[in-house]
Amino acid sequence: MRHVVLITTGGTIEKTYDETTGSLDNRRSIVGRMLGRLRLDGVAISTIELMSKDSLHMTDEDRPRIVAAVRVAAGGTPPPSGVVVLHGTDTLAQTGESLHAALGRVSIPIILTGAMRPYEMKRSDALQNLTEAVFATGVLSPGVYCVAHGKALAFPGVVKDRDRGTFAKRS
Length: 171
Hints:
Blueprint: E1 2-10, E2 16-18, E3 23-25, H1 31-36, E4 43-53, H2 62-74, E5 82-86, H3 92-103, E6 109-113, H4 126-136, E7 143-148, E8 151-154, E9 158-161, E10 166-169
Parallel strand pairs: 1-4, 1-5, 5-6, 6-7
Antiparallel strand pairs: 2-3, 7-8, 9-10
Helix pairs in contact: 2-3
């Protein structure tokens, strides 16, 4: 049985709609609902709810917290087959660069993913990206990656392509 640690930080992927106020915000992690829709034969997932923030609101104190959480998760005994970080897409690349720089050589795949549209909305990419990220922990070599929209991009050099609504390698 493969073991994956999933760290939630919030972001669009986990935003929920409040009918009373008409707002779409990060209130709490909804990753359990997403995981409940997946068939994960032979994969055990442990979830760490680290924070619930839009990535545009992340502070200079938040990225070191994410790095520390990934370091602890990856150093488990026995180590997991991979770590997935759910993250807002606006600053996902910054956090990926921070992880790449701070962790150096890693012994497992560290995957960052998010969504351009919240899980609760029609035509959301959330479930696809979560599925791809969990799958990627079993097939990618050790390193720090952004996995979304059918692509696995290794850090450093990943950027958000706002025009196309996805991620790309810096040219």
